[in-house]
Specification:
Order of helices and strands of chain A: HHHEEEEHEHHEEHEEHEHEEHEHEHHH
Structural class of chain A: alpha/beta
CATH topology of the largest domain in chain A: Aminopeptidase
CATH architecture of the largest domain in chain A: 3-Layer(aba) Sandwich
Number of helices of chain A: 14
Strand content of chain A: 15-25%
Distance between the termini of chain A: 42 Å
Largest interface: A-B, 34 and 34 residues
CATH class of the largest domain in chain A: Alpha Beta
Oligomer: homodimer
Number of strands of chain A: 14
CATH superfamily of the largest domain in chain A: Zn peptidases
């Protein structure tokens, strides 16, 4: 009798661990398979070679959409579809910049997204150079009247997004602030950690004046010329077209769940890119990592309990794809178990942040153990930010996770002509897939409910 | 009596060492002063900021010539003069390249010096990709008929010139060899150790067909597209002008010797550059290093015995400045004690090669000792090559030295838009000046005769 009671108790105690052990074993097998799987690499190679740069609203974006549909079908995804909406499209025309006095120099620049074109024939003015954005913000109204404002603030290299988040203000709001003070043009040192003579573009708030990024060496040249004391004049010629509403596309594919197909794990990256480089680290890699992770899970002997959905968001760079996706799928958000995006390059994942209270569930503790051999930490802090495309789902109540990539080298490449396939380390790419596959599997094949766990954690 | 004899003998024995000791002490003081001297940096900054890119035959080269004269005068050089001659001038016009099928891609290219322009409207053809130059050379006559030949051979990073000397053949003779086999155009992977999307230009033999360098990522893209098997077509549009004889200038200044002013130590770098970047490491640095070394010696309490002459050769990149200099100064070559140029960037000097038998003279042994704290070796091998501009003096009998710079990073920058001031480490630049100042002083303030020593060494 005593034995029977003990046996029953033991069985009861073991039930969850046994399930978790099975899940951990499969997640570990996925992890190990991912480390030698080449799907993410071939997907990245395919998108960068067969489409290349693909800015929102361009013919290349149409090709990227078709590529996405074909690639998901080829890999065996189900319910492959295109969700169409409208999003802004700023497209670059011919651009040039030069110092005209005191010494002639060509400048390496790239217009910023939402820049106003210059008049035909260009715009020439004296420059006013500021070493930091704050230095320019300290100028009174009218202080920059008729001038081209130049901010040369440097970006710090950091493992996480901190360096970028700090430096990017000079790009995003510098033009607006320069215009307020009377400037007729705005130049900003590229928000970049590299020193190559390649400018890095990016979005900026509409300012009504022409705005462009200088390559780091050109920003330093302007600093040196300005330091000589004599007026420095720059001629700027920027052409572009802007449509507030251009056709845009989110491409979606699924691995349908075997037990609870209506419960969905949403993962993905963004399909669009800037018009320079080939959009390899930003964000073919994110598309490839999440697609490869889902594909590895699909190749298991049995489907996971829940549905895994890969979304290739179509208008991240210029904005709108996350909002459009959340709006079109709002009714389904209560059944979205977890949402997460990969959009910080192709560096190794070094940290994972889960929803609050997540480790209260054995499947998530099992996941944490599976990460240990990769030296990836599950942070004690809960995930805060869903990112640009997942954020709108988060706002509607979807739990989110952050798989933090090492961004140390990302901003050497980001938004520049240097964003090409050769910059990606296939081993680091595969490490990403390993972490994603383990997490997505642990969530999709368990009954973890982050909303309930978050309640318990409070 | 015995004491007197001993004293006399001691004096006799000591005579040379005492002289050498004094020379060593002064050379060591120059070395140490150079390490904290900023002249080379300010000269480099000045040329790159106030002139920038300065290809032979361009208006910028005229400005560089005027800059050289003014800078040498400002630094107190004597007999500052311009030696005028004629040299080839190839100047770039607008250029573009793109893959037209199977997938459209813009390509980052730079026409090679002496490239033939394409017809207006460009030239479009199928490409034939070869991973090495030898692979293309193995093709029979006519095998490339109507095609654009592409050679994607990679360059190895080496401390000395080996990597470049091996890889540069694909750039210099590839076009001629492609044309022989019927090609209508030639593209070569940039002779570069970097992976940025900046092409590296450079001279090539006249081939009668358009020739351009691809950035490394673009070369790899063409490899990947070709590997898919379907024909790859490229459209190339290159404009340029070429003059076989354009005005060219060698700018010269001297520190006249106090005892034997007709005996001359000739040092320098080249004033011209390619039209991309600002010619910082190639070769503002060489000009600056040798000028700063001479200036440090001029600032000693007394002038050295012999004359130190700094030559800023004006047409190294496209050829002719060394020949013109040797021809114009041929009569003086017998009184040229040593000639040496600095033209491998701004990396630290790690080795010095002297004329054969040089260490037979105490001044040269003293020099070797002065180098020891810098961990710079005097090679047991004699100097072989005077370099592009000193070579013609060597041919006429001038002894030469090689001050070998660490070229490990040089070919990341060389002939590209990335050749800018920010890539120069001021400490490494100063180390160069230290070695040059010690050597030039040891030669100019002694009676070393390398021709005699070379005879003794045989």
């Amino acid at each position: 009798m005593r034995n029977l009671i003990l046996a029953a108790a033991a069985a009861l105690l073991a039930a969850a661990p046994v399930q978790a052990n099975e899940l951990a074993a499969t997640a570990a097998a996925l992890r190990d398979r991912a480390l030698s799987d080449t799907t993410a690499w071939t997907v990245t190679e395919s998108l960068t070679s067969e489409v290349g740069a693909r800015p929102q609203g361009s013919p290349a974006m149409d090709r990227a959409r078709d590529w996405g549909v074909a690639k998901l079908r080829e890999l065996g995804f189900e319910n492959v579809r295109v969700e169409t909406y409208e999003a802004p499209s700023w497209l670059r025309g011919p651009e040039s910049a030069e110092v005209t006095s005191p010494y002639p120099h060509k400048l390496a620049i790239l217009g910023l997204g939402r820049s106003t074109p210059t008049p035909r024939g260009g715009l020439e003015a004296e420059i006013a150079v500021f070493r930091t954005l704050d230095e320019m913000l300290a100028q009174p109204e009218g202080a920059l009247k008729g001038k081209i404002a130049v901010v040369t603030e440097r970006m710090r290299r950091t493992q996480d997004i901190t360096g970028y988040a700090t430096a990017v203000r000079a790009r995003s709001i510098g033009g607006v602030e320069a215009a307020k003070r009377g400037a007729v043009g705005y130049l900003v040192r590229s928000v970049s950690t590299d020193d190559t003579r390649l400018p890095h573009t990016g979005g900026a708030r509409f300012s009504g004046i022409p705005m462009a990024a200088l390559s780091p060496p050109d920003a330093e040249l302007l600093e040196r010329l300005a330091a000589r004391g004599a007026p420095v004049r720059v001629k700027l010629e920027l052409a572009s077209t802007f449509r507030e509403k251009a056709p845009a596309y989110n491409v979606v594919g699924e691995i349908r769940g075997r037990e609870a197909p209506d419960e969905v794990v949403v993962i993905g990256g963004h399909l669009d890119s800037w018009d320079v480089g080939t959009g390899a680290v930003d964000d073919a890699a994110g598309i490839a990592i999440t697609t490869a992770a889902a594909k590895l899970i699909a190749d298991l002997p049995q489907r996971p309990r829940r549905t895994i959905r890969v979304v290739m968001w179509g208008a991240e760079e210029q904005g709108g794809s996350g909002e459009a996706y959340a709006q079109a799928n709002a009714a389904e958000v209560p059944r979205m178990i977890l949402a997460s995006e990969s959009d910080l390059g192709a560096g190794e994942i070094w940290r994972v942040k889960l929803p609050a209270g997540a480790l209260g569930h054995p499947a998530m503790r099992a996941f944490a153990q599976v990460l240990a051999p990769l030296s990836v930490a599950v942070s004690p802090e809960p995930a805060q930010s869903g990112g640009v495309d997942v954020g709108p789902l988060q706002t509607l109540g979807a739990p989110v996770a952050e798989l933090s990539q090492d961004a140390s080298r990302y901003f050497d490449l980001h938004h520049s002509d240097d964003d090409t396939l050769d910059k990606i380390d296939p081993k680091a790419l595969a490490q990403n897939v390993a972490v994603w596959a383990a997490l997505v599997y642990a969530v999709a094949d368990s009954d973890v409910d982050f909303r309930a766990l978050a309640g318990g954690a409070r």
